[in-house]
Amino acid sequence: MAKLLIIDDEKAIRGALRDILEYEGYNIDEASDGEQGLEMFKQNDYDVVLCDIRMPKVDGLELLQRATEMGRSTQFIMISAFGNVETAVEATKRGAFDFISKPPDLNRLLVTVKNAIERGKMIVETKVLKKKVYRLNEIVGESIAIQKVKDITDKVGPTEARVLITGPNGAGKEMVAKRLHEKSTRATMPLIEVNCAAIPSELIESELFGHEKGSFTSAVKQRIGKFEQADGGTLFLDEIGDMSLSAQSKVLRALQENKITRVGGDKEIKVNVRVFAATNKNLHVEIAEGRFREDLYHRLSVIPIYVPPLKQRPDDIPLLVDKFLDDVANEYGQPSKQIDKAAMEYLQTLPWTGNVRELRNVVERLVIMCNDLITLEDVRIYATPVI
Questions:
Q1: Which own/partner pairs from 23-31 qualify as long-range (CB within 8 Å, at least 24 positions apart)?
Q2: What are the BP-aspect GO terms (predicted)?
Q3: 339 has which bridge partners?
Q4: DSSP 131-176
Q5: Residue 77 forms beta bridges with which residues?
Q6: 113-127, 302-316, 367-381: which has the minimum mean pLDDT?
Q7: What are phi and psi of 325, to 5 degrees?
Q8: How far apart are the first and last CA of the chain?
Q9: Domain 3-133 carries which CATH code?
Q10: Domain 311-382, CATH 3.90.1150.10 — does that match?
């Protein structure tokens, strides 16, 4: 059951609140002033704190601010016999969940406590999910090449600079884009991804810029494009080397003017978007052969980042394998499996033409097909299966 702390210098109020809340099944602690309450808060984990505002030694608003700075998920419900709108607003600004006047209405008190507990749980769950997402998107490796990638992303992420990420398929270009977004000031806004190679050339402009109803045969309703969806956040143009020249010219205009026009429309729409692009192609060759606009290349490659193939960083393979073993085990809800030294060394000798993506697939296959300890023989059988 949830654990609550009541901080109030009036013994009668503390007793009344304790009786009510213990009857509902909550575990209750008490503090008779702000100083004692702050010490108890530091030493224990509480789901909710009910805190008087006017108290000796440390008043409720100061206690609230100092407790909030500790970064916990505990929810504060402020209570006072001298409540007014200004006090309630100030309490909310400092992080209080709610404000209740004395004497508290019983029904409202119980509902507020219940809602505060639920909010605290949601905050904890969100933090856990963010950690899981971060681990899934983590760039793993300690090689010089991959450390250089990490250093650049950490330095560039908080800026507004556009980034062009190059490297072979499966090397981790998408991970780099996600890390850049997570390090940016736009991290709370959406990261919208577009796989330019997967969208037919006749539809790419509609995908990026949207379209108006009736602008072409199948346009039965208005569509909001990826640029508008990413407004305030980040747009990741994956495999931009496969984009048509027509779409390239419109992307260039959008980057130059921060405006787009939907297909079939004539209204200019302002957008505030940071753009990352990625490709496995040599864009200098594409430019020379007339398949990619040089002016767009220079717009996109303010900061170039090259992600090396896995064969150039074999020392990172053990770290990646360990991560993938844990990830797959968590995904399947089973204990993580181990891999013996000879098997790991053999994995480091393979060519990995599919790079990190191929390695992840192989580890998943090994987890499914092998016993708790993955051996060299297992790797020889399942790492390079006969097609």
A1: 24/110, 25/1, 26/1, 26/2, 26/113, 27/1, 27/2, 27/3, 28/3, 28/4, 29/3, 29/4, 29/5, 30/5, 30/6, 31/5, 31/6, 31/7
A2: phosphorelay signal transduction system; regulation of DNA-templated transcription
A3: 374
A4: HHHHHHT-----SHHHHHHHHHHHHHTTS---EEEE--TTSSHHHH
A5: 50, 98
A6: 113-127
A7: -60, -45
A8: 56
A9: 3.40.50.2300
A10: no
